[in-house]
Amino acid sequence: MPDLLIAGRLERPLILGSTSRYRRELLSRLQLPFETVSPEVDETPHSGETPYELSLRLAVAKAQAVAQLHPGAIVIGSDQVPELDGQPLSKPGTHERATEQLRQMSGRQMNFHTGVCVSCAETGFIESSVVTVQVRFRELNDLEIERYLRAEQPYDCAGSAKSEGLGIALLDAIVSDDPTALIGLPLIRTCQLLRAAGVVLP
């Protein structure tokens, strides 16, 4: 496949199939021009589907949904699913649900699975991967949880905490070979997939 970066411009448009501000900020670090498109994908887990499988399926589904609408573009799809006791955790949405999630995670180790897919309908290119990050939470009391949630209000974050912000104070350890995966987009793996699609990166 020929190089797709010519004179500082992409020959094919690059699209992030997500409206997440966290993924948009992460992708902008690569200094490539891109636009964002909201993928219309049902995120309901399938019966018997593991959190790992769910993250991969949704990443692929999001990339393909947007690629069908923009066949000449290279599309990135991604999805993150936290796993606790083998079950997926959703974004809390409210203070009450975030409080309950952090109580459940207190003193526990859990996995955050972040799926990423790069697709181009016109060329038939599609490759995907999952990056799993192990996170161990400190023992948290209700006062610590309340102070944190009032300070950062991470209600749109899977797992009810922002590791890139004050949420790092809730943790004992993070184990990962692709550190931005926990924020929402594994940039090391994303770069590998973009190169495979023909995009030239520094």
Question: What is the end-to-end distance?
Answer: 18 Å
Number of continuous helical runs: 5
Q: Major sheet, described briefly?
A: 7 strands, mixed
CATH topology: Maf protein
Query: In total, how many beta strands?
Result: 9
How would you describe the shape? Answer: elongated
CATH C-level category? Alpha Beta
As a percent range, the share of strand residues is 25-35%
Q: Give me the Rg, rounded.
A: 17 Å
Number of separate domains: 1
Average pLDDT metric: 94
- Please state the second-level CATH architecture: Alpha-Beta Complex
Give the SSE string.
EEEHEHEEHEEHEH
Alpha-beta content class: alpha+beta
Helicity, as a percent range:
25-40%
EC number: 3.6.1.-
Protein name: 7-methyl-GTP pyrophosphatase
Cofactor: a divalent metal cation
Organism: Comamonas testosteroni (Pseudomonas testosteroni)
Keyphrases for this structure?
202 residues; two-stranded antiparallel sheet; 7-methyl-GTP pyrophosphatase; hydrolase; nucleotide metabolism; ITPase-like_fam
Q: How would you describe what is shown here?
A:
- With 202 residues, the protein is of the alpha+beta class.
- The protein has one domain (14-197): Alpha-Beta Complex (Maf protein), CATH 3.90.950.
- Helix content is 29%, strand content 26%.
- It has helices spanning 21-28, 51-69, 95-105, 142-152, 187-196; strands at residues 5-6, 9-10, 14-16, 35-36, 74-84, 87-88, 109-120, 125-137, 171-175.
- Strands 3, 4, 5, 6, 7, 8 and 9 form a seven-stranded mixed β-sheet that branches. It has a two-stranded antiparallel ribbon with strand order 1-2.
- It starts with a strand and ends in a 6-residue tail after the last helix.
